[in-house]
Write a structure and sequence with these properties.
The structure is a homodimer of 364-residue chains. Chain A has 364 residues and is of the alpha/beta class. Helix content of chain A is 39%, strand content 17%. Chain A is built from 11 helices and 17 strands.
Chain lengths: 364, 364
């Protein structure tokens, strides 16, 4: 389905960031995160089906990264389409990409902005439309990195010197177009001399913490230790955690936040131990059309992700798992939402409305 | 170090229980639980070093099973010792077994009772002493099963028809001399027509839930589903859990309970969602000399248990894990402690003192 390439031309450990999404040689390449940390394999996405499949099987993952990949996916999907077919083809590619994963709102956010670009340019023919979409996708890509750096600057002010910060799943460069949301905030806090150590939840079943966040922190030179998800309570009861920063897949208008399964558990423990719990996400992750967390659709993934590991059965053959991909953390457990326009505080209904007003619309 | 045997002569799926510890052909055999659910391999323990190693590497695990294995370990260790060496050899074997794992109190409880038997009989020479210890160990073995069945009868009364019961780790037949503590209570509740389904936490890092509890429930014909440890919050917020029963490795005089890492997290979530959280353990797991949970020593195990899986590195090579084997659930989160003498209720300082008075001393 795609060519593979063992080099990673766009990244260097000294840069403090890299992107899992690259446009090179006039084509889209995605870092196959399912193979990290063992191998760095890039997938050439020459058809929109390859992009959709990469999103579905989590080769590319994380709400912002999914959004940017889908934007490039429109470009890949429209190239070479006869002008008279452009309209039909756009709907086809839009649908293909929009239905890959239900929870992350950035996916539809990006596709809807892509639709506006498409509608402005479709009268100019395929080549001009594709060129306009590509320029827009590049803009979205670099705007995401810029957004994350702003989020880092705002969030870094929340840390105190010596902080041991816990994060769940991976909300790093790998989950975005670069720099990361939660990991970006932690990186900024480390660069400011405040974050002393990171606790990395392994994040079962797919181990985005121990595989991906650990891999990023190792590259960044930020001290970290991995723990099983179920160790978080013990860490907090021993006063080994000072602050928590996680990402988000969708934030409702009242601040309720869907994020990787297990986030809610961390938030409940944090409340009991009075450890400040922050969400870091761009305003594009806020869905003003979703009033509360109850309305956020929660993806249920295959049982096998839990009962098999690297091809080994870890449960008896008859065992079935219940595998929710996300959970919802109610707004009252969240000390602040770190966005590119500032740190939002409760009551979130007001601060979110205000932030969405202030947030500049990205290109397109 | 030991012979292996692929058959399991002592168990039958229809019996509703089996023992992971067997004395046959005048020798001690332990089921190697590290190889479940894939293979049923029995270890012949012809030297006390083999017993100690089996405990240390979790081939045999669970506080009651460790206690009974250590009892047989004294027999294996003293056989063939010249009478004049008996005293020195007893101390050597005692020390070897006592230092295998620090948290479970049943280990030292069994060894100290073994010492009493030894002291009563050592004047009669090696053969008589070993025979007395073996008789005592057999008594301990069958008393543990009987204790668990009584616990089941007491605990089963706590369930309501249709209950979906969550358990963490494995406190089943495999963790005891047979029938199980928490799983025994659940089995009794299922047999009484009340438990409808079991939620099995996988229990990272060693997956005693998805590997062992799932294997037992499958044999017992009790419906179950596996979930990652971090799914428990989502299950409770969706009102999918009615009751929780877990085992214990040591219970302090005030009811604070050390159990497998992650138990505390489940208890905190249960408190938030008002789901009754029960501990099932024989009175031998209560340590009246430990005033509170703060004084329970918590074993820290190898980083590799977290960062490697079936020989595959799941974290970058530089990653180190913090791997606490247990955590402590404070007594105020526990709705009841199910023992063989009844269900203890708060205030535990009183109900535990009373229960220890009522508990009959087992053989020896």
């Amino acid at each position: 389905m795609s060519e593979k390439n063992e080099t990673n031309p766009g990244s260097s450990p000294s840069e403090k960031t890299f992107s899992p999404i690259e446009w090179r040689d006039d084509g889209l390449w995605l870092l196959d995160q399912t193979q990290l940390p063992g191998r760095e394999v890039w997938l050439e996405c020459d058809r929109p089906e390859v992009v959709a499949e990469a999103i579905r099987r989590l080769s590319v993952r994380g709400a912002p990264a999914i959004g940017v990949s889908a934007a490039y996916g429109l470009v890949v999907g429209l190239r070479g389409t006869p002008s008279e077919d452009l309209e039909r083809r756009f709907e086809e590619v839009y649908e293909l990409l929009a239905t890959t994963r239900p929870t992350a709102v950035n996916l539809r956010w990006a596709l809807d902005r892509g639709r506006r670009v498409f509608e402005r340019h479709r009268g100019e023919g395929t080549e001009a439309t594709v060129a306009a979409l590509l320029e827009w996708a590049h803009g979205l890509h670099s705007a995401d990195v810029e957004t994350n750096r702003r989020m880092g600057a705002h969030g870094s002010a929340l840390f105190h010197p010596g902080d041991r910060v816990l994060t769940h799943c991976n909300a790093g460069a790998l989950a975005t177009a670069g720099y990361g949301t939660a990991v970006g905030v932690i990186t900024a806090g480390f660069d400011a001399g405040k974050v002393a150590q990171v606790w990395v939840d392994e994040t079962r079943p797919l181990l985005q913490g121990s595989r991906l966040t650990a891999w990023e922190l190792d590259r960044l030179g930020i001290p970290f230790r991995v723990v099983t998800d179920s160790s978080v309570g013990a860490l907090m009861s021993r006063e080994m955690v000072d602050r928590i920063v996680v990402g988000a897949d969708r934030i409702a208008a009242n601040g309720d936040t869907a994020n990787k399964i297990g986030t809610y558990t961390v938030a409940v423990l944090a409340a009991r131990h009075r450890v400040p719990f922050y969400v870091a996400a761009p305003t594009s992750t806020i869905d003003p059309d979703t009033a509360t967390g109850n309305e956020i659709p929660i993806e249920v993934r295959d049982s096998d992700e839990v009962t098999r590991f690297h091809g080994v059965e870890v449960s008896p053959a008859a065992a079935e798992a219940q595998n929710f991909a996300f959970d919802v953390t109610p707004h009252e457990l969240i000390a602040g939402i770190i966005t590119e326009v500032g740190v939002l505080e409760p009551p979130y209904v007001d601060s979110i409305r205000d932030a969405l007003g202030r947030a500049q619309e990205p290109t397109g």
